[in-house]
Task: structure prediction
Amino acid sequence: MPLTLRLMHRQDIPQVTEIDHQAFPTEWPPTNFQRELENKLAYYIIAYETLNTNVQSRAKSSDREMPGFIIRVRRLFIHSQISKDDPLEEVPILGYAGMWIMADEAHITSIASHKDHRHQGIGAALLICLIELAISKHTRIVTLEARVSNLVAQNLYYKFGFDKLGVRKAYYLDNKEDAVIMSTEYIGSPSFKEKFTRVKQAYHQKFGDFTNELPL
Ligand SMILES: CC(C)(COP(=O)(O)OP(=O)(O)OC[C@H]1O[C@@H](n2cnc3c(N)ncnc32)[C@H](O)[C@@H]1OP(=O)(O)O)[C@@H](O)C(=O)NCCC(=O)NCCS
Result:
């Protein structure tokens, strides 16, 4: 399915809230997306199904064949024209993810794909874009917490080179479940870059290209 990833806008909040409720039904309080979009440290992104008629798809998936600086200039041009408050055409959102960037550390706050579209590459596409965003912001590492029972999410992170660093006891308020703390190595290191490139290539071979409209 053709996917586009872009920054979340206010108008996306109802659909994202629905996906958030499906994915994290027991978490309280639920994420306040309105507040998160105002938070200067936070970056929230969405993945949506690209429709042929969608006039928003101005960055092309052929980006991967263009010189890097042309891609960056084009994305900056696109983003200089769009603010988080601008009304955009409504799109079918299939997943979202959030990340806080504090000093040189990027912390993934959440990642979820629509329950009817799991295991179709949406979670991995979101993670690729978060890591690329973290690289473009010159952070050193990407970290997160996951429930010890959430092996699906842990598999996704292991695949991208995250390692388990430790455990936070009774981290989740609903059932006092422990969290595993996971982190990448230094994302500027040759070994991380090499692994990340390999995982991205495997992704594109399996699922094809997606359109990345993030301001990288
Ligand atoms: C975790 C989640 C985001 C994965 O999204 P997704 O769109 O299904 O992920 P993808 O299709 O891109 O799969 C990527 C990888 O995740 C892992 N994965 C996905 N579904 C899996 C499953 N049912 N069993 C085991 N591993 C699985 C695999 O490593 C997979 O790679 P592979 O296809 O090469 O095996 C999704 O299951 C979800 O929204 N879960 C509820 C919310 C949640 O738990 N978020 C994480 C909080 S820490």
